[in-house]
Amino acid sequence: MHPTVANYSLAPPSRHLVLALCAAYLLFGTIGHDPWKAEDATQFGIVLEFLRGGNWLVPRVVDVPLLDNPPLYHWVASAFAQALGWALPLHDAIRLTSALFCALFLFFLHRTALLLHSPAAAVAAVLLALGTLGILPLMHETQPAIAWLAALAAAYWGLALSPARPLQAGVILGLALGFGALFGGLTPLAMGAATALGITAWPGWRSAKHLLALLVAFPIALPLAAAWPLALGMKHPDLLAAWWAQELTDLTPNLGDLNSAAQFLSMLGWYAWPAFPILAWTLWRHRRELARREIALPITAFCATLVVLAVAGNARTQFALPLIPPLVLLASLGAANMRRGAANLFDWFGVMTVTLFAGFIWLGWLAMLTGVPARLARQATRLEPGFVMQFHPLPVALAALLTFAWIALLARSPKAGLRGSLRWAAGMVLLWGLITTLWLPWIDYGKSYRGLALSLARALPQNAQCIEEIGLAPYHRASLYYFEGLRVHPPGGKNCPLLLTWESSRNHEGLAPGPGWQKIWDGHRPGDRNERFRLYQRQP
For the chain, give me the number of helices (H) and strands (E)? Predict the structure, then answer.
């Protein structure tokens, strides 16, 4: 029999319901659209280069090395492409790699919370992760950070296991740290190692079993982490030197680190919602018990991660991903034991917010399809000029199914302590599912470079073989190569007769090619007013 608190059963929700939420979370938004601007198209470009004959040791985007991450994630993505490319568009098959690592992240998070807290808290950890606002879009991109997020969650699982089974814990921890380095370089390795060593500052973690786990883990982790750098150094010592220098620079402390830490902390209020306020309440409730083993581990993991992120110094949302697992692990303890009044308030806020936004998404789709309400239709057209919404039965049917499932959940949810967490997670799946079914053509129209690549290909002179570029980002080069087979080369060395420039409102004058060039085309994505591409032809 499960205990109760304030007339709220602590029995976790049905396993089948939670698994259904996870499956919907993983699939909606992962397939069905082109590679999108920035990170999604960049990482896709690396996999595309591997598949089309590139050097498998060196991540590249159309001839240009990109050593931000070791290539293990891209190797796995290449295997997905070869296994599923016959059934899905290549970009969708590759993006399913992120769904795999997201599923592993949720599994390892569940196992860790189960060891640290209780079965209810383990389910709460999964629900809070599904409902976390900041990570929702990032978990559906072609994104190596998801892989090393899963590795960090596995490392916490190993650490949580060390008091009971130190040998098994050491193997799990060592593999997690080693694979984390192969996915993300020294940064995830530093986060995991700092956590494993830092928790020894707490009395409950100064034990022979934990020391044994560490002695097993590090001899496994270090050779595994060194495998790719050693292979790279044997073939390309110059690239290894460049990668190593960048990694050390990223982990070198400086005076700006305090500002970076403050920026990361300031974004957590919305980025880690709703885990962050539940975490604050949990810490207050257990303020005299912070040295307890199950509380000390996520506190140490959060502090170690924040320090490493601050030293790396890039306070962007994708780099805040590693802060989520320790926050969720702490918040899950509070979510599983929430007082009745707080649980009702959280539940009421979630239901009202989700229902309101779900109605707005349906209304926005209706406006784009029919022109009514006219004001919303005009706003959608202003943001993405030229877009025309078409009626597609399957996405609309899926959106309707999600909506009816939400109504059924509201009508039949038991009065349980995890009802607020369950409904919030289900609400986030609903909103994300509605956006990525009803609004997906509109979003894809604005974030894909397919139309621009086609326009550029049509403007090329006959028998154009060589195009150099100035100012293009890796995702530009990847998109042009994928959609129209255009390999644009970095400036210098090729002396190509064609030059493609990327110009924004800030650098329009700085990228003019100078005399001897004639502009023969310019273009931009319909809704993007900040960037413009121009194609020049060298004059005799």
Answer: 21, 9
- How far is residue 350 from each of residues 18, 401, 499, measured CA to CA in Å? 17, 20, 52
Q: Are residues 107 and 234 in the same domain?
A: yes
Query: Which residue's entry shows tokens 């802060």?
Result: 323
Domain count, the chain: 3
Q: Tell me which residue of 329, 291, 334, 338 sits closest to 113, measured CA to CA.
A: 329
Identify each DSSP E strand in 88-209 by its residue range: none
Radius of gyration of the chain (CA): 25
349 closest CA partner among 131, 139, 134: 131
Residue 424 in contact with residue 16, Cβ under 8 Å? no
Instruction: Give yes or no: residues 293 and 428 share one domain.
Output: no
Bridge pairing between strands 498-504 and 467-470: parallel
Taking the C-alpha atoms of residue 209 and residue 440, their distance in angstroms, rounded to an integer, is: 51
Amino acid letter, 540: P
**Domain of residue 475, residue span:** 450-538
**Type of residue at 238:** D
Q: Which residues sit opposite 2 in a β-bridge?
A: none
Judged against a pLDDT cut of 70, whether residue 352 lies above it is answered with yes
Tell me the pLDDT tens digit for each residue of 316-325: 667 889 999 9
> What pLDDT, on a 0 to 100 scale, did the predictor assign at position 408?
93
Domain end (from 447, 471, 498) = 447
Distance between terminal CA atoms of the chain?
Answer: 86
| Residue 286 sits in the same domain as residue 404 | no
Q: Are 142 and 150 in contact (CB under 8 A)?
A: no
| Model confidence, pTM | 0.94
Same domain for 49 and 131, yes or no, is: yes
Give CA–CA dist 136/139, Å, rounded: 6
Contacts (Cβ under 8 Å, ≥6 apart) of 536:
498, 499, 500, 501, 513, 517, 518, 519, 520
